[in-house]
């Protein structure tokens, strides 16, 4: 009797497992059956709209872009982390999310454990700029100026704990200079005061910096990325200017709730990679200031881990406090 009971239980478990596997496969095959939502936190939604347009064409389902910029992206991340893990609610993730995971002590969700990576869509450098009328013509001159007058030079950012802030802090630490950070509520507000001469320099996201550089209102000194920026190939990297380990980029990726079935994540990844490699999408992404990517799940996972490690080191060394 015991043997018979054991066999029945074993068979029952196997049947349940087979039914679950069959269900997951069926869900993935039929996915998507309704519109998708892409939740956007801080920063532009341009890449969500560019890719969403193509995915809607491919899948015959609308892709709705919804902005939730409050609290530096915490609201956006939390809403996706706590949404149904069915692949229909996506997060346009950025560097702000990895920084928050290190900087904020009381997050309502865990970025690494409550969300799963899908693909790194694109990166974008920060351009180190000064007012066009500034006598400073290079990064070396900026560093020299800061060293001759400690505590006198200041730099703007789009807010405390943002990637632009960390770029300035990273330069401060590596160059051994004493400079003052002035946080603003947005990159636009910081640029306005930079144009007005109220601040000395700023790391500005490339899409925001380009119009002012092209109109000769701002002077570009270097880019924050490890490689030169394709839109401004003549501009050196900070690393080339004497700080070889300097590297910080803005980025856009896609995350979904952690318990989303693996086969749905794979289907989403395949579609986003396909879209990001289309010539039309790449042209639009570059025009918006991005460097198109389109990575595997594993590559994006490793990228996020590296980004968190880099942010953690800068935050700890600079004793940066939560906003």
> Count of helices?
12
Instruction: Name the CATH class of the largest domain.
Output: Alpha Beta
* Shape annotation: globular
Q: Write down the Rg.
A: 23 Å
Largest beta-sheet characterization: 10 strands, mixed
**Helix proportion range:** 40-55%
Average pLDDT: 92
User: Which fold name is given in CATH as the topology of the largest domain?
Assistant: D-Maltodextrin-Binding Protein, domain 2
CATH superfamily of the largest domain: Bordetella uptake gene, domain 1
Low-confidence stretches: 19-24
Number of strands: 10
Question: Span between N and C termini?
Answer: 66 Å
- Strand share of the residues? 15-25%
Protein name: Tripartite-type tricarboxylate transporter, receptor component TctC
Pfam families: TctC (PF03401)
Keywords: Receptor
InterPro entries: BUG, Bug_dom1
